[in-house]
Amino acid sequence: MTDEPKRHRTRKPKTRSIGQSDTDSCSTAAPAVSPVSPDAIASCSGSCMRPEVTEEVQETQTLSPLIDESSSSSYEDSQTEEVPLLEPDPSGGNTPSLTYYIPTPQSSLILTHYFSTVCLVNSAFDSSYNPFRSEVSRMMTDSPLLYGCVLSMSAAHFYQGDQSSSCIPLQFQTEALSHLSDKLSEITTVPPARRASGIEADDSATALVAKEKTLKVPDDVLLAIILLGMTAAWHDVTATGLPHLHGSRQLFKSWVSSNDLRDHKKRAGMSQTQAFLVSSMIYWEAMSSVLLDQEYEALSYLDIFCDPNPPSLIHPCPWTGVGTPIFAFLAKTVTLVRNNRALRSLRVFKTGETHRSALYTELLGKATDLEAEILSFRLPFVGLIDDIGDPCTTPGHFLAVSRCYRLAALLELYRAFPETVKTQAVLEHVIDVPAGDRDDQTYLLLGLAFGMLGILETIPSDSGTISTQLLALMIAGSALGPATPSQTQDTTSGRVPLHEEVTRWRSFVRQRIHKVYATVGLRPVGNASLILEEVWSRMDALPSDHGNNTSTTKVNWMDVMSEKRLETIFG
Q1: How far is CA 53 from CA 59, 68, 160, 220, 521, in A?
Q2: What angle separates helix 167-186 from helix 219-230, to the nearest 10 degrees?
Q3: DSSP for residue 385
Q4: Segment Disordered: which positions (predicted)?
Q5: What is the value of pTM for the model shown?
Q6: Angle at the Cα of 506 from the Cα atoms of 123 and 61, rounded to 5 degrees
Q7: HSE toward the beta carbon, residue 281, CA cutoff 13 A
C-alpha cells in the first residue's frame, strides 16, 4: 500500500452543441413542450454495461475521498446566462409550469447526464422499468419541485470533485430547496371529521394526531425530500441529510394515512409509485441509522411494511431490491447498537449501575424480539421475482443482496448483544469457520462475515446491485480481524489458516469497494474505505492476548467513523 493514494479523475461527457446528435446521449435539446420525452428515456436503458467513472483504479491501495480537482469543466458556464427555472403559464395563470419551460444549454446538459449516467448509478438495476426513469420522468413533467431535485442531484454528480464549478450544483440545490419550501407551505389538510369519529376538540394530543393523518402529501413532495436527503452527501461529503429525515417522517406518515396504506389489502395492492416511495423511505432510514442516535420506537412507523410473508410476485425496487423489510430490520438493529454503545459510554456513579443494567436489559429484550423477526422473515423464491429487463442484474442478484443484508443485521445484533445467540443454527447459512481458533462469539461473527462476503463474491462486479453493496461491505469488513496468526491456531488440520482467510477477504472488500467507487464516482465511498482501513489497523495492533476477548467487539467501525469525522450517507 503506497503512502500517497492515487488521485482519480471524474470522466465527464464531452462538450457538444445542444442540437448535435449523439447516439450515446439520452436527450438533446429539451423541447418546449416537455423537459423529457419517452423516446429519450427508453434510449438510455438498452446497454448492459454500467459506466466506469474513473479512468484507472489501483485496487491495492486505500481510496482517497478526494477526486482530482484539476479536472476541467466541460461547459463554460459564463457564456450562458441561466434563466429562471420556470416560466409563467402563458394562458394567464400564475402557476409555474414545466410545459412552457425552455431549458438553458446548461440545464439541458445536466438533464442529459441524469438519464445517461445518474439513473444507472443510483439504482440496483437499469431498464425502462427503473423508477428513476419511468416514475421520475412522469412525475417531474408536472412538478417543478421534482425537476429541480433531478437537476440538483445530477449536477452534484456531474461536477463531483470539480471545485472550480462547485457553485453550479449548489445553485441547483438551492433552487430545489426553495421549491420544496414553497410546496410544503401549500400542503393542505382535509377538514377532519373529529365529531363523527368521536374525537373531542379539547383533546389536543389526539386532535394533533388526527390533523397529521389528514395532511394531503403529494407523491412528488415526498419523493423530492427523500432525494434531497439521500443525495446531500453528493454535494458535500460531510452532509448527512438528517435535517431532511426528521421532517420527512411526518410527511410519510401523513402520506400513508391519506393513501389508506394502514389497511393490509391496500398495502398488498400498492401501485409501482407507492412501492417505490415506501422502499426509498425505508432504505433512507437504514442508511441514516448509522449516523443517528434515536429512540428505537422512532422507527415503529415502518412496522406495517414488514410483512413476514412476501407477496406472490415481487417487483424489485431500485434501492432495496426484493428485501425492503430487511432494510427496516437493519435500521432497527443499528439503532439498538448505537443505543447500547451510548449506554456503555455513559458515566454514572456506582449507585447508577443498577439503572444502567436495567436499561441494558430493556435493550436486550428488544434485540431478542428483533432477532426473531429477522430470522422468521421469508425471502422470496427466485422464480417469484419479476424480470426487470436488465441483463446485468438477474433475480438471483437481488436475492443474494437481500440474504447478505439479513446476515448484516444479525452480525451487528450479535456483536452488540451476544446474549441473543441461543443457538448456532444461524451458521447453517454461512461458511464454516474452524471453531478451535477463537472464542464462540468470534467464531460466529467471522462466520457471518465470511458468509456475507461469500454471497457478494458470487455477484458479478458489473451487476447493478454494486451500487447498493457499500454498507454490507463495511459491516462484513469490520468483522475481519485481526489478520495476524493466532498462537493457538491449529496448523495440522490441513485447512487454510484463519488469518490467511481474513487477509483474503480483506483484499476482496478492498477490491469491491474500489469497484463501487469506479462505478458510482461519489466521494462517500472513499470515506468507507478510510474507515475500514483504520478499523483493520487497530485490530491488528491489539495484543495477541486479546484474542479471547474478540477484537471485532473492541474495535467498532461506527466509533471510528465518529472519531475520524467521516460520517456520510453510505447508500
Answers
A1: 15, 12, 10, 29, 6
A2: 150
A3: B
A4: 1-94
A5: 0.80
A6: 80
A7: 28
